[in-house]
Amino acid sequence: MARVELMDFDRALELFEPVIGLEVHVELNTATKMFSPAPNPANDANHGAEPNTLVTPVCLGLPGSLPVVNGEAVRKSISLGLALGCEIAPSSRFARKNYFYPDLAKNYQISQYDEPIAFDGEVEVELENGRVFRVPIERAHMEEDAGKLTHVGGSTGRIQGAEYSLVDYNRAGVPLVEIVTRPVVGAEADAPALARAYVSTIRDIALSLGISEARMERGNLRCDANVSLRPRGQEQFGTRTETKNVNSFRSIERAVRYEIQRQAAILAAGGIITQETRHWHEDTGSTSPGRPKSDADDYRYFPEPDLLPVVPSAELIEELRAALPEAPAARRRRLKQEWGFSDDEFQIVANSGMLNELAATVAAGATPAAARKWWTGEIARLANAADRDASSLVSPTHVAELAQLVEAGTLTDRLARQVLEGVVAGEGSPQEIVDARGLAVVSDDGALVAAIDEALAAQPDVLAKIRDGKVQAAGAVIGAVMKAMQGKADAARVRELVLERANAE
Amino acid sequence: MSHGDELIRLSAADLAGRLAAGDVSSVEATQAHLDRIGAVDGAVHAFLHVAGERALDTAADIDRRRAAGESLGELAGVPIAIKDVLVTEGMPSTSGSRILEGWIPPYDATPVRKVREAGLVPLGKTNMDEFAMGSSTEHSAYGPTHNPWDLERIPGGSGGGSAAAVAAFEAPLALGSDTGGSIRQPAHVTGTVGVKPTYGAVSRYGSIALASSLDQIGPVTRTVLDAALLQDVIAGHDPHDSTSIADPWPSMADAVRRADVAGLRIGVVKELDSEGFQAGVRQRFHEALDLLERHGAEIVEVSTPNFEHAIAAYYLILPAEASSNLAKFDSVRFGLRVTPEGGGTVEQVMSATREAGFGPEVKRRIILGTYALSAGYYDAYYGSAQKVRTLVQRDFESAFANVDVLATPTAPTTAFKLGEKLDDPLAMYLNDVATIPANLAGVPGISLPVGLAPEDGLPVGIQFLAPARQDARLYNVGGALEQLLLAEWGGPLLDRAPALTTHELLATEEGAV
Amino acid sequence: MSEISAEQVAHLANLARIALTEEEIAHLTTELGQIMQAVEQVSRVATPDVPPTSHPIPLQNVFRDDVVGDNVLTVEQALSGAPEHDGGRFVVSAILGEEQ
């Protein structure tokens, strides 16, 4: 691959204004596919099925097979459209997008063209730095996913150099909603972060609606990022590229940033940007050209004759609208207020992506402060060390139980951390671990006093210092007592008792 | 006449009666038809696949169930031929194309499933123009079917195999598909009965799509009552086909049995009663109308000015939809695969396969349809054709405001000679001038024989058209006319067809080589 | 409007994935010109006030319930018609140079 010049990001921003456009595909988690009654692999219940076991004649495009629309997929699409602030089309229809590719069973994709189900929306997106953008949505339309190709042979496992390819049609026909933004201007240096935050917001919306499993690593949520640059002072948009295959939040940000730097270098050197599809490579952190957009991309759209218009009643739309969960941005504002967090405190939680876990932990009985402390502190640390999602380590109910044990004085922070490790290791609930390991704090003053007296007797010099008013010397005794108690004592109470005993004689 | 000869000449309704009465077994009836196929199909070539053993097994099963006192459908035990456009589990389904040679589908088309559930006995698959593109079966990749009235002539198309099979007494019933006349025009040239039901009356699930918004499955028979009985079996809502009509249907057989044309208003389409039609075709058409008028029908002339654009619209809509429908034949999941010499990319394999697997008419229409849909031409071609469709529908609406049914000759000429129009696609397309409007508008149509053209002694059909969902009107008028004609003729028209004697067949076969 | 060039036919053949021979392209170029001339009358009568009809019988909101159907195929059935498969998946030649 030829060496690619990149311009310094700040310098690129000085010369050019970035314009981004995002196309997000959301796989719906209906029980069956969009047009076929085959089990839907984008539903957790069917995830990981053997190749070509989730197919009907429709998914394989067998001669004679016909599509029939999944009504539940339509309802989920309408809900998503409403949550994106879109208008729902009084009548929308499906169209065929014709192109040949071996993962496309019929060699046309059933999609929506000139009559999408939802259009003209807006999504409020909050960045990690607290800036809020309103991203305009052009449309959201229903379509079907393609199958999966595996390239075999050659050294890389990539398409180049492969000897042959294998096709699995399990994914063919999975219901998709494609959400297309209008060009987003004005984000400036925040453009990469906005792209990331936008997709993250779409994920939050999809999860809150319960319409998608929304796991980027499984491709439930996929993003194509359009990037163009226009020289400062120019009205007209520049030529854009479309970067595909961006499959993590981090990659979205990196890919947009990379394209800004790459395009800026070309434009500044007097070159021109080719309108093309580019592929993101996670390993190298770069994009490479796919095939150029050309006249060959003549998709010959026409109304799908096998399907009929979708004409949702006003009643259905209102019913779905009434059932919408709170919008993520509004919810954040409400939670921040309810929890009494400062801007910074709340931002840390929001940026950590653990808002839902926190809310669930509070709902399960923890104080907001304790919930925040656990999720952004010890749990985040463990997750980081294990390279796992915090939410996959421990449930909000267990965290709330843990916080309550600390609050009740049953556990010290230190003991609680041990209990947490037990929970993560799958040993049971916090209470079960406390019981099994005998980790509860010793609250019997008698036992503590005995240990303190012993420690004071062993360290007469310390005792003398305390009596001289050098209270900080007590630390050594406290440490010895805590050690003797195997940590199962409340250090504050030990300190009180040490001072009391030292001055008692 | 031997017992077998007698059985094969029975109508399906009469054979069903004999089966129900226990006078004959389904195995006997099936064997008689298989024998007939063995005797004449070498010359007629109506079948692409004969189910032989499996048909006899099915028949034996029906006989057992009947003997066990099971309540069976009215047509149970009656043999039926199935147009190869319908997929059949366990039987090859090629749609007349090389690209699907040997493909055995893992599922049954809904009409096939219904036919099986009703206890009919599938005899095999019938020949057709490749992917139902044609009016003569000459575009079949497996060689043409010959018209039993004159083996050097076309049996019509695309469903020439089904029509010839019933005309040659190889089957009492057959299934066809009609996109622009593929059931009705073969009926016209073979002296048989063919019905294109209302669009959506019969499920298209499992019918290898030609043009999705035009295709409709229907019966191919020798009598109107048989067509009605078969439509009663195959019609009805199918959740696998979104365009399937959910409303219940009245019995078509009842409509035939109660047929009466007194007071019926029949509109003669002025634009399809013109000099462009063969004299003998028009003559028999008008004699039939006179006969109906003498029995109480009222004949009025109606005008449908936009029908003149129907063929043009049809030859844009059909290729456009077909170009997309036939994209699935790509060598990946089923059918032929042709790898270019020295290998190639999947794209090259697809292109080589489609080059080798499709015949000239299919390629012609795919290219035409690709053109009609391509960027910059959509509005002028496909978009405009869809508007003409609206105009044709409006013509039907205003006509049906004044009459109960419309009448036209089914096709402009009697059966032409094989090869006569093969190199002139435009002339071939004109065969469908009278049948296409019904497909564009979705309305039902029937063709039934009204005699032989005096100039060539070949069969002529009349077509009746009814408003959408009013299929019963066709069975009423068709059933009534059939009875009147039988009374005039003293027997079925097909009795006048030349006997396909072994001697003639051998001669033809030798000549054909 | 009905002037069709051989280059256009070649382009259409590529879109339709048919490896037409030069001879076929030449033949089709003539035929398509004639056919298009015969059918282009539709654009004269298709005035802006006429709405298009895409379905002969107007229906709408035809949906199925979100339940698994009885026509799910076994992997053996799915692969039964394949020109080439590896027991679980369909096998195709290398795709090369293109990626969706």
Automatic annotation (TrEMBL), chain A:
Enzyme Commission code: 6.3.5.-
Keywords attached to this entry: ATP-binding, Ligase, Nucleotide-binding, Protein biosynthesis, Transferase
Start and end residues of each stretch annotated as Disordered: 277-296
A GO molecular-function descriptor: glutaminyl-tRNA synthase (glutamine-hydrolyzing) activity
Alphabetized Gene3D superfamilies for the sequence: 1.10.10.410
Domain of life, per lineage: Bacteria
SMART domains tied to this protein: GatB_Yqey
Keyword ATP-binding attached: yes
Enzyme class (EC, first level): ligase
Swiss-Prot/TrEMBL catalytic activity: L-aspartyl-tRNA(Asn) + L-glutamine + ATP + H2O = L-asparaginyl-tRNA(Asn) + L-glutamate + ADP + phosphate + 2 H(+); L-glutamyl-tRNA(Gln) + L-glutamine + ATP + H2O = L-glutaminyl-tRNA(Gln) + L-glutamate + ADP + phosphate + H(+)
Record flagged with keyword Transmembrane helix: no
GO biological process, one term: translation
UniProt domain Asn/Gln amidotransferase: residue ranges: 356-502
PROSITE patterns: GATB
Signal peptide: none
UniProt-listed InterPro entries: Asn/Gln-tRNA_amidoTrfase_suB/E, Asn/Gln-tRNA_Trfase_suB/E_cat, Asn/Gln_amidotransferase, Asn/Gln_tRNA_amidoTrase-B-like, GatB, GatB_Yqey_C_2, Gln-tRNA_amidoTrfase_suB_CS, Gln_synth/guanido_kin_cat_dom
Assembly with partners or alone: Heterotrimer of A, B and C subunits.
Described purpose of this protein according to its UniProt entry: Allows the formation of correctly charged Asn-tRNA(Asn) or Gln-tRNA(Gln) through the transamidation of misacylated Asp-tRNA(Asn) or Glu-tRNA(Gln) in organisms which lack either or both of asparaginyl-tRNA or glutaminyl-tRNA synthetases. The reaction takes place in the presence of glutamine and ATP through an activated phospho-Asp-tRNA(Asn) or phospho-Glu-tRNA(Gln).
Family: Belongs to the GatB/GatE family. GatB subfamily.
Protein name per the record: Aspartyl/glutamyl-tRNA(Asn/Gln) amidotransferase subunit B
Gene: gatB
UniProtKB/TrEMBL annotation, chain B:
Entry GO MF terms: ATP binding; glutaminyl-tRNA synthase (glutamine-hydrolyzing) activity; transferase activity
Keyword Protease: no
Family matches, as InterPro entries: Amidase (IPR000120), Amidase_CS (IPR020556), Amidase_dom (IPR023631), AS_sf (IPR036928), GatA (IPR004412)
GO cellular component: a single term: glutamyl-tRNA(Gln) amidotransferase complex
GO biological process: translation
Residues annotated as catalytic: K83 (charge relay system), S158 (charge relay system), S182 (acyl-ester intermediate)
Protein name: Glutamyl-tRNA(Gln) amidotransferase subunit A
Source organism of the structure: Agromyces agglutinans
Record lineage: Bacteria, Bacillati, Actinomycetota, Actinomycetes, Micrococcales
UniProtKB/TrEMBL annotation, chain C:
An example Gene Ontology molecular-function term: glutaminyl-tRNA synthase (glutamine-hydrolyzing) activity
KW ATP-binding (keyword) present: yes
EC number: 6.3.5.-
Keyword annotations from UniProtKB, A to Z: ATP-binding, Ligase, Nucleotide-binding, Protein biosynthesis, Transferase
Signal peptide feature range: none
Catalytic activity of the protein: L-aspartyl-tRNA(Asn) + L-glutamine + ATP + H2O = L-asparaginyl-tRNA(Asn) + L-glutamate + ADP + phosphate + 2 H(+); L-glutamyl-tRNA(Gln) + L-glutamine + ATP + H2O = L-glutaminyl-tRNA(Gln) + L-glutamate + ADP + phosphate + H(+)
Database matches in InterPro entries: Asp/Glu-ADT_sf_sub_c (IPR036113), GatC (IPR003837)
GO biological process, one term: glutaminyl-tRNAGln biosynthesis via transamidation
Subunit and partners: Heterotrimer of A, B and C subunits.
Reported function: Allows the formation of correctly charged Asn-tRNA(Asn) or Gln-tRNA(Gln) through the transamidation of misacylated Asp-tRNA(Asn) or Glu-tRNA(Gln) in organisms which lack either or both of asparaginyl-tRNA or glutaminyl-tRNA synthetases. The reaction takes place in the presence of glutamine and ATP through an activated phospho-Asp-tRNA(Asn) or phospho-Glu-tRNA(Gln).
Family (UniProt): Belongs to the GatC family.
Protein name per Swiss-Prot or TrEMBL: Aspartyl/glutamyl-tRNA(Asn/Gln) amidotransferase subunit C
Name of the encoding gene: gatC
